[in-house]
Design a protein that fits this description.
Helix content: 25-40%
Oligomer: single chain
Structural class: alpha/beta
Strand content: 15-25%
Bound molecules: flavin-adenine dinucleotide
Shape: globular
Amino acid sequence: MPSHRYLVQFSPKHTPHLFTDILVIGAGIAGLRAALEVPAGLDVLVVTKDNIQQSNSSYAQGGIAGVLSAEDRFENHIEDTLTAGAGLCDREIVDLVVREAPAQINDLIQWGTHFDLEDGQLALTREGGHSHRRIVHALGDATGHEVMRAIIARARQAPHVTIWDNTFTVDLLTHEGACVGALVDRPGQGKLLIWAKQTILASGGAGMVYRETTNPPVATGDGMAAAYRAGAELRDMEFMQFHPTVLYVAGSGRFLISEAVRGEGAYLRDKNGVRFMLAEDPRAELAPRDVVAQAIVRCMERTRHPNVYLDLSHLGAERVRQRFPGIEKVCRGFGLDITHDLIPVRPGAHYMIGGITVDPRGRTSVPNLWAAGEVSSSGLHGANRLASNSLLEGLVFGTACGRGAAEAAAGLPDTFTALPLHSQFQPETSGNLDVADITNSLRSLMVRQMGIVRERAGLAEAEADVAFWCGYVLAHEFETRPGWELQNLLTIARLMIWAALQREESRGVHFRGDFPKRDDAHWLRHLTCPPCLPEAPGRPATPQ
Ligand SMILES: Cc1cc2nc3c(=O)[nH]c(=O)nc-3n(C[C@H](O)[C@H](O)[C@H](O)COP(=O)(O)OP(=O)(O)OC[C@H]3O[C@@H](n4cnc5c(N)ncnc54)[C@H](O)[C@@H]3O)c2cc1C
């Protein structure tokens, strides 16, 4: 694939400049938590590519995990996380994150988040893989909406924090190997060079690389791809978590049916009404997500049916309506009464476990570049994320990055100036490309060949197709967001497919049909992406 350092041409003479102490890319939970940790003496600029409500964080339903009840212990949460992670979690990180959870949840409450209560105490629910009730939630099943409402309000009140929405980060700027800010594009202003003493990347995941996903359209892996171009280390890109239960009704926009529904006792049934999880795992519907998602795929193949069903009819209508008002409302829009009808569901891409490698403080391999949240790989999730651990990771690592970046920025002189950076990029192709067509083809290909069950032949085919598309799409210079997003999606897809081909075993969310067993002798380790992918044998891809 062409290895252009930058996606577009620019030169400092012809591009306006802006200076800030700290640049935060992304205004989800990780980015805003980072911004709030920076002390008032430093300027923070937060950029987000859409309106500020558009982030995975705002769509989170189930809640945030934390040890908050007398019956629970930190050790239980640590063990549950390690078990889900299938040998690849970093115990030091798990320990750090789990122990910080109660204080982080308390901060959110102090900032005005209204979590659901039961008898005056925080109501705690349970989700797959958790041995105890330890998930705080809000508005029943709209936790992200409520948490982000409070945290956005808090960030807007902070006088040293400026938030720019609709500002697309095209690339990270590097000089002599260190990050010095970012090139962004703003409506009405065009391209802008933002020079920052420290840059925090919190740009979220990449679910949009799949046709079936729970993620909103902003999740196109831009930050991971930009960091890769900037020379940062990425790892574990084969680990994309699929959520087992995504509403499968034409026109539903792949709405997520939260794991908490099963946590509260819902059953999974096949098209004949059989509760198939009983035969799959002793934990039945409460088995970790990878186990449930793979069981659903097997069930759909066995029954030759495109979906399975969630059954809440035995849970009590009043309780269901009160606990899941958002899900109830969405399903009602499709004529489904969830207190009584079966809900058609199938798995969809949900959470990117791999990403930019960070240390316990959130530092990446590129000096002056930090990363937090879904864009990063901290070692918390291993090969499979435990439900409701990711908002928590965003809070803990957002805090760490904000603190670390502030300390580093405070130590640098204010005589920070623009650098003579140029993009040498010369477009090799011209003319119009049908960006939507290639994007749709890529997303379908990923579902077919890089889905829940993978095999060498399908992966090799996907590798060739994506390499072929990269050949001309990455050689093109785009002027707008859809083109840059496609370039980033292609870059991420190539890294994911490359990693899935390498890992010849099944572990956590990565299931190889041709290597169905876990192989600790060879694969009890992270998989680091090479700095430059070799050219794959390109071949014309058949339009999908
Ligand atoms: C439907 C759904 C339900 C979920 N439920 C839960 C749950 O109950 N509990 C839990 O722990 N986790 C849950 N998750 C996962 C969790 O929401 C995410 O992992 C987490 O919110 C990620 O936070 P983040 O701050 O890293 O990224 P995000 O919240 O996705 O924020 C990314 C930000 O970066 C911006 N951005 C992206 N690219 C660019 C660019 N090029 N330029 C500028 N800005 C950019 C975006 O606009 C956005 O502001 C859920 C996810 C989904 C999709």
